[in-house]
């Protein structure tokens, strides 16, 4: 009996030791996400964060093993309020938390300054939505994006204005952010190359709500198209004021305008086919089923429609983890080379990066709005 009573605590101790060893074998992998969760475009920031959360939860459900250890992924979500200073603070906070990689930021204006902080720390960064070309032109080997850049997006819209809308005269407004200014500049290049005249160039900011002065000046020029470089939170009230002033020009914008949220923000000022915009990504026929399934799963989980970027965030997160699996390591220095040469089929299409970190052969989707719904016009490359 004495032997048995001694054996019981010994067995318990051994079981505890084995459990402790198993627990020690599990590693926590921290994936950072940064977007504007507060401010005028918080609906887009939350959309992005939801995309990352979906990917993380699916990865954890799979019970992956990397480098001989079971992996538990943890999402560290930060709010940059679309403000460059807050963006760099958020980036430093994530670096200090020893993240294994970061998905973000949403805006070019926050992504570009934050990218230096991640680069200096050797942490891979994939932006799902920053389109300013400068982001990948800084020579940072840690910087990647899964959407087409402004050179492709703005230029395509400029050519479309001439070729498909028959525009002879255009007016251009931008919100002076890195994104807004960048996409507007590229639009003007594309339009001018087709012989279109830029008859007015006006500026606002990303928090403005009153555009009567600049729109009145534009109305006097009688343009065929008004192009806005900025986000939907500003575009919605701008469209309402254009209608009130009797400006009947077509309204064009980049992916920041091209959201589900614009429907509510602009209301009946959307018109029927008056707005033409482009999303910096595109799903062709072979991919449509996968995207539809994603949208349905997203709505079921979060009770709301995808705004715009969530599928790209989802893919970016899975691409980062795929690189870890290929390297058999979650160490940023070890999986970074695998990320640079990844070839991954995602919900949004095939993801392959060029030497700068831009997506190769990035697609664009052109949309308009009819009957209070966003309607696809075409996918172009």
From TrEMBL:
Residues 29-372 form the Leucine-binding protein domain. Residues 1-24 form the signal peptide. InterPro entries: Leu-bd, Leu_Ile_Val-bd, Peripla_BP_I. Pfam families: Peripla_BP_6 (PF13458). Keywords: Amino-acid transport, Signal, Transport. GO terms for biological process: amino acid transport. It comes from the Bacteria. Belongs to the leucine-binding protein family. This is Branched-chain amino acid ABC transporter substrate-binding protein. It comes from Noviherbaspirillum cavernae. The lineage of its organism: Bacteria, Pseudomonadati, Pseudomonadota, Betaproteobacteria, Burkholderiales.
């Amino acid at each position: 009996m004495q032997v048995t009573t001694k054996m019981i605590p010994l067995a318990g101790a051994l079981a505890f030791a084995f459990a402790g060893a198993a627990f020690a074998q599990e590693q926590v992998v921290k994936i950072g996400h940064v977007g504007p969760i507060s401010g005028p475009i918080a609906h887009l920031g939350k959309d992005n964060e939801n995309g990352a959360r979906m990917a993380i939860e699916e990865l954890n459900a799979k019970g992956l093993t990397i480098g001989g250890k079971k992996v538990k992924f943890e999402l560290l979500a930060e709010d940059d309020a679309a403000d460059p200073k807050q963006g760099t603070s958020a980036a430093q906070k994530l670096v200090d938390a020893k993240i294994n990689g970061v998905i973000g930021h949403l805006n070019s204006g926050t992504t570009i300054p934050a990218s230096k902080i991640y680069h200096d720390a050797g942490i891979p960064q994939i932006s799902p939505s920053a389109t300013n070309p400068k982001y990948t032109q800084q020579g940072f080997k840690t910087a990647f994006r899964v959407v087409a850049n402004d050179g492709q997006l703005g230029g395509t819209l400029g050519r479309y204005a001439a070729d498909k809308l028959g525009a002879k005269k255009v007016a251009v407004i931008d919100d002076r952010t890195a994104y807004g200014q960048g996409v507007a500049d590229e639009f003007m290049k594309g339009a001018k190359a087709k012989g279109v005249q830029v008859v007015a160039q006006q500026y606002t900011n990303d928090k403005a709500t009153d555009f009567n002065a600049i729109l009145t000046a534009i109305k006097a020029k009688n343009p065929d198209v008004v192009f806005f470089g900025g986000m939907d939170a500003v575009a919605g009230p701008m469209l309402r004021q254009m209608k009130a002033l009797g400006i009947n020009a077509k309204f064009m914008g980049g992916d920041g305008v091209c959201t589900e949220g614009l429907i509510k923000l602009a209301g009946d000022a959307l018109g029927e086919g008056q707005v033409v915009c482009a999303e910096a990504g595109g799903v062709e026929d072979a991919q449509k089923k996968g995207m539809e399934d994603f949208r349905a799963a997203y709505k079921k989980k979060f009770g709301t429609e995808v705004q715009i970027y969530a599928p790209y965030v989802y893919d970016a997160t899975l691409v980062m983890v795929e690189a870890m699996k290929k390297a058999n390591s979650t160490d940023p220095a070890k999986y970074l080379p695998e990320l640079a040469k990844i070839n991954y089929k995602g919900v949004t299409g095939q993801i392959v990066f060029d030497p700068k970190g831009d997506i190769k052969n990035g697609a664009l989707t052109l949309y308009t709005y009819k009957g209070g719904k966003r309607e696809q016009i075409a996918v172009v490359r």
